[in-house]
Write a structure and sequence with these properties.
About 45% of the residues lie in helices and about 15% in strands. The chain is of the alpha+beta class. It has a four-stranded mixed beta sheet, sandwiched between helices. It binds zinc ion.
Length: about 140
């Protein structure tokens, strides 16, 4: 059973819009995690940066996750499993040479854009960096 669509949530769309208007190009919802069928929200291929926008409830945000009053025995282990799967996803990606950036849906878009931009620019292959600079001038 699919509990909710994790794709195209409002915080994710806002972030994609902000990245796009900052001049970044990327792919969305790619299955690039080695060995498992899991989808990365935002992918910067040449820089090998993988970004996830995690919902505060579904991924157990320390600031906002509250134990549901109803069906706690169902939800608590489920959220714990989600968090464990996230850590496993991070490990698989890191091992394959990716930098993983996880964003909470509650984070301010402008802070997040800076964090992602720094990572992407630092990891961008040199030839591409030069090409990007030339096309701008
Ligand atoms: Zn949160």
């Amino acid at each position: 059973m699919q509990l909710q669509s994790r794709e195209n949530t409002h915080p994710e769309l806002a972030l994609r819009r902000a990245l796009h208007s900052a001049g970044f190009r990327f792919r969305v919802h790619r299955s690039i995690v080695p060995g498992v069928r899991r989808v990365v929200d935002i992918v910067f291929g040449p820089s090998k940066v993988a970004v996830f926008v995690d919902g505060c409830f579904w991924h157990g945000c320390p600031e906002h996750y509250r134990r549901p009053k109803v069906n706690g025995p169902y939800w608590n282990p489920k959220i714990a499993r989600n968090a464990a799967r996230d850590r496993d996803t991070d490990a698989r990606l890191t091992e394959a040479g990716w930098q993983v950036i996880r964003i909470w849906e509650h984070e301010a878009v402008e802070d997040v854009v800076d964090r992602i931009a720094n990572a992407v620019e630092k990891r961008r292959p040199v030839s591409r960096r030069r090409a990007a600079n030339e096309s701008r001038s």
